[in-house]
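Annotated sample (chain length 73).
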Amino acid sequence: MNFDLRHVPFSRYGSYFVLSRMGRAPGRAAGLYLRTVHGDARTQGIFRVELLAGGKRLPVTEIASPGRLRLQA
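Output written by the structure step:
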């Protein structure tokens, strides 16, 4: 069973860190982000995850299931 990272973040049980798709917002580009879901955090998005080849960004598709996240370029 695969799920959409725009709606269901990928994480390990008990972790405050998740990988999820975030939309564009002021000061933030749309993309796949490592973020925190800890309630006391001032900002959720820690950094955007990108795949590079030869210094150029590759389009990526996430294939997420409850036990695995695969990034496919």
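Annotation: DSSP finds no helices and seven strands in the chain.
Annotation: The two ends are 21 Å apart (CA to CA).
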